[in-house]
Design goal:
Elements lengths: L11 E8 L6 H18 L2 H9 L4 E6 L2 H13 L4 E5 L11 E10 H8 L3 E2 L1
């Protein structure tokens, strides 16, 4: 089954993983999570996007402890053909340019995302 053929999957969702080591201010955190959600959505195939929209855009926000954890998840997602986007900051406010703030995954099949991120804790 192709990753974009989700007609047999009961549900899709999106997962945002935040670099919790940064201890971002609430406003900055919200902006970075929004960047990850939109960018990952744009990386997904049309069928996944449409199913996700139809299901109410379910998403969950989790935390990672480091850049290394984000990079490892990014590599695993790419290897599994899961839509993924790594957000790096532009450096215009509180963070240096290039700081890895969060990772957007999906929309994709829930079981596939759960295998990848099920060990992470809620933000």
């Amino acid at each position: 089954m192709a990753i974009d053929d989700l007609s047999l999957i009961p549900g899709v969702k999106q997962v945002i993983v935040v670099n919790n080591a940064l201890k971002l201010p609430k406003g900055k955190l919200a902006a970075q999570v929004a960047h990850a959600a939109v960018a990952a959505f744009l990386e997904a195939g049309e069928a996944a996007r449409q199913q996700w929209l139809a299901e109410g855009m379910p998403k969950i926000v989790l935390k990672a402890d480091s850049d290394q954890e984000l990079l490892a998840l990014h590599a695993l997602a790419q290897a599994q053909s899961i839509p993924v986007y790594l957000v790096t900051d532009a450096g215009k406010t509180v963070l240096p340019e290039g700081t890895m703030t969060c990772l957007g995954l999906g929309p994709a099949a829930e079981p596939e995302l759960d295998k990848l991120t099920g060990q992470l804790k809620l933000l």
